[in-house]
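Private note to self, pasted from the team thread so I don't lose it. Backbone tokens:
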């Protein structure tokens, strides 16, 4: 084992991520779909559809289908799959049910997306006690909600999240402090949050492929090449991560976007689409009893150039007419006559943090 300072914290962090979340809700509610390739996302329109896959069942993943893949490609990979449009309100309800179960245990909870959350269970004192709790949580979610999840337990948030991913579905992976580095070391550097495609390629250039390589690399060389942010990355590679479970951090925005079947510069179609998107985000806002202050409109032109424009009101509002009018005014400001591929609306700056980030691109 290399000579590296480990994170020596006594914390015990639990990360839970629901398995194939939207697809699981659909398969739970419609038993006929079980064991079938099920794809949730945009309408495939016999292979000519636009937009993307939100998620799919593991049976569909066996055909190579993945989240965020163009729906047309998913159709080519498995034309006989069951393609469903998302029914967002049911997923929000299931998400709230899961979070309610997690809250009953009284530990600090940070919901980070519609289907994942961290709990700081350090108070339990030992990993075996935390493992018992994780088993109970999985069991309660399965028996009460008919859904499976995967849980990672570790001394840090980053490692707990990585642990919840390794044994999906229905997984439970425990990484105790003494196993922290052996767990991380063989993983590709890309697994470290903050290392995307570009940084991964830059690290490859200097021979760094695994987390072990990064942890052992001369920090001065890394700083010279990547700047001081290299220090934080090398810390993460060594298992050092002091980030805390922050309660009430889940809600960032409610958003909805849509890809046009054919790129368009038709102002009437654009206006009608804004109306439809505004109606949906406003409905989500009201379902969650939220009020917001900021409206953002997003436009992606042909060629994937994306522009956004936001406006923040002095007061919170949930009024659909105000929000829709604002969205129309923003689109008028940024529409430059070029053909549009995608339009989106996001509402943010909420007066309560009691919901979750809700983004749906189909
Ligand atoms: N989602 C989406 N678009 C994406 C990724 C995800 O709309 N590009 C939605 C659908 C997912 C949900 O968010 O069901 C949760 O995302 P996850 O990344 O946790 O994916 P799943 O829960 O579907 O699958 P897994 O079992 O791999 O966690
Ligand atoms: Mg998930």
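Design output:
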């Amino acid at each position: 084992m290399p000579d590296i300072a480990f994170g020596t914290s006594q914390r015990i962090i639990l990360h839970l991520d629901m398995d194939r979340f939207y697809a699981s809700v659909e398969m739970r509610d419609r038993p006929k779909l079980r064991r079938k390739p099920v794809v949730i996302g945009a309408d495939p329109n016999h292979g000519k559809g636009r937009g993307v896959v939100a998620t799919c069942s593991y049976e569909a993943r066996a055909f190579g289908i993945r989240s965020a893949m163009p729906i047309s490609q998913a159709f080519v990979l498995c034309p006989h799959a069951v393609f469903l449009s998302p029914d967002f309100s049911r997923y929000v309800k299931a998400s709230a049910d899961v979070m309610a179960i997690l809250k009953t245990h009284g530990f600090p909870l940070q919901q980070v997306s519609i289907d994942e959350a961290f709990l700081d269970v350090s108070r339990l004192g030992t990993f075996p006690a935390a493992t018992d709790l994780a088993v109970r949580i999985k069991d309660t979610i399965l028996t009460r909600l008919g859904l499976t999840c995967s849980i990672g337990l570790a001394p840090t948030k980053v490692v707990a999240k990585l642990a919840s991913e390794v044994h999906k579905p229905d997984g439970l992976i425990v990484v105790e402090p003494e196993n922290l580095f052996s767990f991380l070391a063989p993983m590709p550097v890309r697994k470290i949050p903050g290392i995307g495609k570009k940084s991964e390629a830059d690290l490859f250039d200097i021979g760094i492929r695994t987390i072990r390589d990064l942890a052992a690399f001369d920090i001065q060389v890394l700083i010279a090449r990547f700047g001081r942010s290299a220090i934080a990355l090398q810390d993460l590679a060594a298992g050092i991560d002091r980030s805390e479970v922050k309660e009430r951090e889940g809600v960032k925005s409610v958003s909805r976007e849509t890809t046009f079947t054919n790129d368009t510069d038709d102002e009437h179609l654009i206006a009608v689409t804004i109306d439809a998107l505004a109606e949906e985000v406003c409905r989500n806002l009201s379902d969650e009893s939220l009020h917001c202050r900021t409206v953002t409109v997003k436009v992606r032109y042909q060629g994937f150039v994306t522009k956004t424009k936001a406006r923040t009101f002095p007061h919170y509002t949930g009024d659909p007419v105000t929000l829709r009018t604002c969205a129309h005014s923003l689109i008028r400001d940024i529409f430059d006559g070029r053909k549009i591929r995608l339009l989106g609306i996001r509402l943010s700056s909420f007066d309560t943090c009691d919901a979750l980030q809700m983004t749906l691109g189909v």
